[in-house]
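4Fe-4S ferredoxin-type domain-containing protein (uncultured Desulfobacterium sp), 287 aa
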Amino acid sequence: MKEDRQFLERIKREVLYGRDIAPPRVNTEDCKGCGQCVRVCVARVFELREKKSVVRYGENCFACGQCWAACPEKAVIQDEVVTAENQIPGPAPAVSPDMLRMLIRERRSTRLFTDKPVTKEELLQIIEAGRYTPSATNRQNVRYIVLSDKETVSQLRSLVEEFLERTFKAVQNKVMAPFLKMRMGSSGLDALRYYAVGYQLAQDNKEKEAYFPLPFGTAVIIVHAESDDYFGPFNCSTALSNCSLMAHSMGLGSCFLGFVQIGANADKNIKNWLKMNRQGTGKLLLT
């Protein structure tokens, strides 16, 4: 049993979360023995003894924060979780189903942006929404790159468009196309062909608009995780979804730039420009 516990702790630290996790604590003076923490903890950290909650298997904890949120007396102390009084769940959800449905339905991808800059405070609010997104195995390994000035955003746009022009030519090459199909699948290749044709028509007619092929605004948030993380795409996608909803609620338009994802994963120039090699291998996944 002791060896199993040691194995669990090592795997948590080295594989699942990459960090040491301090177990929760219980203030026995405040604890009323309701057992809520015992019921909501999927890691079975707690148990009731003499009508008080105690931490029995602290090494199981992966800092999800459910015990803190569920305790009506706030007797559970979880140092790994960011907590604040205004985040205490109330008797009913903070938003009604109708309001949430309206928020989800009215959000649209924005294709034309104004030149109005997005403030640092606004960007931090958007990222905060992404940071509170649940992640697989609670790794919280999503990272953010923020480009918030016109010149930097323009540089990224140029790099991505240069990559796209090379890629569009490869799509029309009978030798290269099969390799692209193996990598991206039939639907991915068809999508590239579709955009390649539209891009070429716009170039031929000298009608390349500011929104084609990339509808860049005045700020770009890039969400990324390690490429060898199986759950990376899921974690990044859910974080971006929360970010976009927060942006919409603040009156800011947003758009998912799939071509930036393709370019940053496939093009070394873009990856190096974003300084994505700073973590050693440079094998990072974007969405």
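The radius of gyration is 24 Å. Strands lie at 25-26, 46-49, 52-55, 76-77, 143-147, 220-226, 284-286. ok done for today
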